[in-house]
Amino acid sequence: MPEELLLSTPDLPSSLYIHVPFCVRKCLYCDFISYPYSSDGESEYLAGLEREMALWEKNVAGERWTLSTVFIGGGTPTCLSSGGLGEIITNVERHFNLAPDLEYTVEANPGTVHRAGLEALRRSGVNRLSLGAQACCSNTLRTLGRIHSHQQTVEAVRQAREAGFDNINLDLIFGVPGQTRAGWLGCLEKIIALRPEHISAYGLQLETGTPLCAMVDDGTLQPCDEDLQLDMYYAAIDTLQHAGFEHYEISNFARLGRECRHNLVYWHNGGYLGLGPAAHSRLDMRRLANEERLDNYLAVLAGGSLPIIRCEELSEQNDIFETVFLGLRLSTGLDLDSFRERFGVTLDQVYPELVARLSGANLLEINANHLRLTRRGLAVANTVMAEFVPFTKS
């Protein structure tokens, strides 16, 4: 990776993502980069991550990023020792400035948290916890290959509250083989009863190469019917909105003012720095990807270089498409005034007649100068967004 590509100082983004590449056991549906946890692996990873932070600080001409959001994800960050997770947090403070209103999120598996560890996280400045509940039914959790029970989710929320967390997200998955509409609605009610500030509800994606996909392919499991999965999605929207959650992004629901600020950076197609194996960054008009294999990541860092395996220069066409694609994920939609200010053209100039055609099909609508998906459009969101790929700028 030519150093000159990095030494040309970008506009420093204010969001940081850190990938922790370890799990107690990989879930059957997961295709993220992760490895079985070991104490030796933790030590090597932490040393490498600190080197990566130091190199980035050096490669922006001595400037220090001021961060407004930090998100530690994985993998399972809370499978690290309390000391190891604390070391990451300490090193972030050593190499970056932290804004006074910092949103600091750590992902956690309910089966890997305990009161003392949560208290240590809260004392260290982490103020948002994202728990991978995923399901409430033991059969569904077993199908997904999760290591925890719903009761452990209940206990994790209770302990997090006692530790001082007042901003908790719970992740859920619907459309799992064997899952029923009644079971899904029952799970939503149980999750609502835990009074989280934020809920993420994702339709299961059967990713090629995962054990769950293989079980569906060989007939061991029957996939969820597409119509049932869509019914579950609409049921989640209606149930959670009725319970007082704002549906602010395709898969995300929040109490007023508790939207995930870190993820909003992604959905507004903003800049961010990613650290750790397989992490990605967007800096100005460059997209960077780190080495995926832990051993390669560590070896490059040991040699004194940043572990970047790919650097893609984004064209204006890519930038426009991604801004539209990501903006349409938001329930408020794509801000057409902001789009014009960013690119110097209107959306209609870039995509002549397309918006009118999709609006005529009741897939898109304009509200308060925002272009957004209709309820019907939500059901075929990816198809609608794909319409914006080919375009001719006038």
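^ that was protein a. below is b, sequence first then the tokens
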Amino acid sequence: MSLSLAGLIAIAAIVAMLLSGRVSPLVAFVLVPIVAALVTGFGIDDIATFYEQGFARVIPVAVMFVFAILFFGILQDAGLFEPIIRKVLSVSRGNVVSITVATALVASIAHLDGSGATTFLLTIPALLPTYQRLRMSPYLLLLLVGLGASIMNMLPWAGPLARIGSVLGMSPGELWQPLIPLQIFALVLLLALAVVLGLRENRRIKRLPPLASHASQDDAASGATIQETADAQPVAKVPGWKMAFNAFLLIAVVAALTVDVLPPALVFMIGVALALPVNITHMDGQMQSIKRHAPNALIMATIIIAAGTFLGILNGSNMLSELSADIVAILPAAVVPYMHILIGIFGVPFDLILSTDAYFFAFLPIVVEVVGNAGVPAVSTAYAMVIGNIIGTFVSPLAPAVWLALQLAGLEMGKHIRYSFGIMWGFSLVLLLFGYLIGAITL
């Protein structure tokens, strides 16, 4: 069997296995490439060498991911983000536009740890009663939370950049630096969109028939609801000096990642080592904190390490380069240099049919190789694909966190896609254009 055909079958098999939901990504990323290597004539020693090459490429990213989740989990347990979220909720005072803006802000803050499940657990139960009381669409809530979380998903300790770093052999912090202006622009754009959607929602509510039981109480109740939501779950009193230390530590860690003075994994290791004794004085409590957050950390780390096997074998065996050469030979010459742009444009629709792992671990390496033959830098290809795709993360039925959000809000996936898909796709296209204007994406 030719290397090109074996690589194509291996990638197709992995994508099919991931989409089926019948096996863990770890199973697909380990077994399929090993079988492909054996079928094409490579021996055990060759496979071991390929594995070692792939492992060396991804282990810094896996370690960073483990300690990043531990770090943000400790700060979240310490209540660092709660006062900010509660304050944002309390100042909106029942105004529809203020609530949509507050939703965007709260979602962005809640997703600082890079976990979609945590974001939805923090935001939807807190905000849904207000949306219901004011007769606002809960699908608008899910849309705004999804957009805010998607933008913050560009952070280096979130999943997408960690996956890209594994594929390209680059530090996620290094990948993140050119995206900082785009991320700031995206947050500003989100707030502007929240205002527009809030005004549209206000007009829709005014066209609804009045509810007699609520009509005389709307003004008082709507403002009270926000305050009640903000006060519903009081946070244990944390000493001011401890809050100040945690805030300073967070700023220091983000600053160190931004200027890239140390490897990201070491930055988060130091952050965890400082945060644990300050916030938890006893060793038993510190170990319990690590155990509490370790499952989430280890799940992602094992997937990244397993993907290292897949990437190591496909690269080391030349399956990937042979496959890309055949694709270039088939495609019209005029299309090849722009393939990454075309895929970026259709990134959000791809989210409906490809899981995140399949998109970045199986799809990205092929595109990097194909457009690389036309002289396009690998990092530019990665930026086009992540910017075009990342906004659609939380409208995809393949994202487990979305199903959690739907369950929390009592909503339907089909209606969520119809409500949010067009807006999310348009949002991603604007970001893709901005990425080109600032030079992150090149032709």
